[in-house]
Design goal:
Layout (H helix, E strand, L loop, with lengths): L3 E2 L6 E4 L10 H20 L20 E4 L4 E5 L5 E6 L2 E2 L2 H8 L20 E4 L5 H18 L7 H12 L3 H4 L4 H7 L1 H4 L5 H12 L3 E5 L4 H12 L9 E4 L5 H4 L7 E5 L2 E5 L7 E5 L2 H12 L6 E5 L2 H12 L2 E5 L42 E4 L8 E4 L1 H9 L2 E3 L14 E2 L22
Parallel strand pairs: 2-8, 2-13, 8-9, 9-12, 13-14, 14-17
Antiparallel strand pairs: 1-18, 3-4, 3-7, 4-5, 5-6, 10-11, 10-12, 15-16
Length: 443
């Protein structure tokens, strides 16, 4: 494979929506997601009311790349070889001695090295995006509560978390004003969403005017997608995209056979009949990458059109697009924004009420409890110094991403023929990060 990657060489450019084209104001959206689930657990499932109260320090627990063992309530941070770097029971971090006794230097029991999805086995869950992270904090506090109040050592709360997802995010929730999440986003989108910078809008039109087929492929439903795109891009957003696919149910969009996941037409945001194939550009629901690729062949007149896909989730976007469809992939990784993170927006003093919600540590900044998303240290034996190792998340980034960037804005003013150095076995593990990689990522 060539050492460099260029957008000008691609025939089609695809985008995820949430946390990719649409950037959220992370402190505010994290609070909203947490509250959506916590209120459901307390009011509908009888969990302790202490779940509703958070301190600013609680948010430090949030770190992408953690796996939750659903049976024993343990959170795990993995090294690239599958060994355990750090662990906590609920929010309580394990000491180095307890960690060594529990895990030693063996691969974690749930780790499967030859697949891209070792942590979605039904016995564990892997947290890899900003919709997930408030749920990690909630689940950890549920474990704390059940351990303290009921002395539990094994857990079955996950069924209630799934019920909370269904309550807040089911397909009809937006239309029915169900749960906390959608009604609040509708009421005050500016509190939670960043508008697309003008540089990004110009860049999208530049891609389209250069003859690229522009795709939007999101697992969000069509009504929520419409709200987001109207807010971030303007009410002419549909002119930008040749093909819009909502309720894509990724990663299944890439991994399922066409007959398992046909495309469906939409009428007033309601899904209609299943289509035997995809014959023309437009707005569709569900679907599969194979039928989409057949349409791209027809539209480009090429037997193997080259596709690049931008997304923020390794599990739903990057791994499946690369592994199943062999597309180029651009990972949006806000952790690359560094310690600047994202400032909490506060109202002027005279506008604040007596009660102020606690400030949230931006989810893309370093966790004191878990350390870096990219690297960690392993204590040396005897007289040996501590060694720096890459995390399992870091290894997956360099294995399945073409490049990784902090946001689309970071590349929007580059020429389309700019040559990015890609991740590859022939380059260093940090070569595909753009712009220049932080020192902490380059031991």
């Amino acid at each position: 494979m060539a050492q460099h990657f260029s957008l000008s060489a691609c025939d089609a450019v695809g985008f995820d929506l949430d946390h990719t084209l649409c950037r959220y104001k992370l402190p505010a959206s994290a609070r909203l997601i947490y509250n959506s689930f916590a209120q459901f657990l307390v009011k509908e499932r009888g969990y302790d009311k202490e779940l509703l109260t958070l301190t600013p320090e609680d948010w430090d627990f949030c770190c992408k790349g953690l796996a939750l063992d659903l049976e024993d309530g343990t959170f795990i941070k993995l090294a690239d070889d599958g060994t355990v770097l750090r662990a906590s029971h609920g929010t309580k971090m394990m000491s180095p001695q307890t960690l060594a006794e529990a895990y030693g230097k063996k691969e974690w029991k749930r780790f499967v090295s030859d697949t891209g999805t070792p942590c979605h086995s039904g016995k564990c869950y892997f947290y890899d995006n900003y919709f997930d992270l408030p749920g990690a904090l909630l689940c950890a506090r549920v474990v704390d509560s059940l351990t303290k109040n009921r002395g539990q050592k094994t857990f079955d709360f996950w069924k209630d978390i799934v019920a909370g997802i269904q309550h807040n995010f089911k397909m009809s929730a937006f239309k029915e004003n169900c749960g906390l999440y959608f009604p609040e986003i509708k009421r005050n989108p500016g509190k939670y969403l960043h508008s697309c910078p003008e540089s990004v809008r110009k860049w999208l039109w530049q891609l389209k005017n250069a003859g690229k087929i522009i795709l939007l492929i999101t697992s969000s439903h069509s009504d929520y997608c419409r709200l987001l795109c109207n807010y971030i891009l303007g009410n002419d957003f549909e002119d930008l995209f040749d093909i819009v696919i909502t309720n894509a149910l990724k990663p299944g969009f890439f991994s399922h056979f066409p007959n398992q996941r046909p495309f469906r037409t939409l009428e007033n945001d309601e899904e209609q009949e299943a289509l035997p194939s995809l014959d023309k550009p437009g707005w569709y629901s569900q679907g599969n990458a194979a039928h989409l690729y057949d349409l791209l062949k027809k539209m480009t007149g090429k037997p193997e059109p080259k596709v690049v896909y931008f997304g923020d989730s390794m599990h739903s976007d990057i791994f499946p697009a690369r592994h199943y469809s062999n597309w180029e992939t651009v990972l949006i990784l806000e952790e690359l924004r560094g310690e600047e993170g994202e400032a909490e927006e506060t109202e002027p003093l005279e506008k604040r009420g007596k009660y102020e919600e606690p400030k949230v540590k931006p989810l893309n900044t370093l966790s004191k409890k878990w350390g870096s998303y990219f690297i960690d240290s392993v204590s040396g034996q005897g007289n040996k110094e501590d060694a720096l190792v890459y995390t399992w998340s870091s290894k997956r980034i360099s294995t399945y991403s073409t490049i990784a960037i902090p946001s689309i804005e970071a590349i929007a003013e580059l020429p389309l023929d700019y040559k990015f150095t890609r991740f590859s076995p022939n380059n260093s593990k940090t070569a595909g990060y753009y712009p220049l990689v932080q020192d902490a990522l380059n031991p």
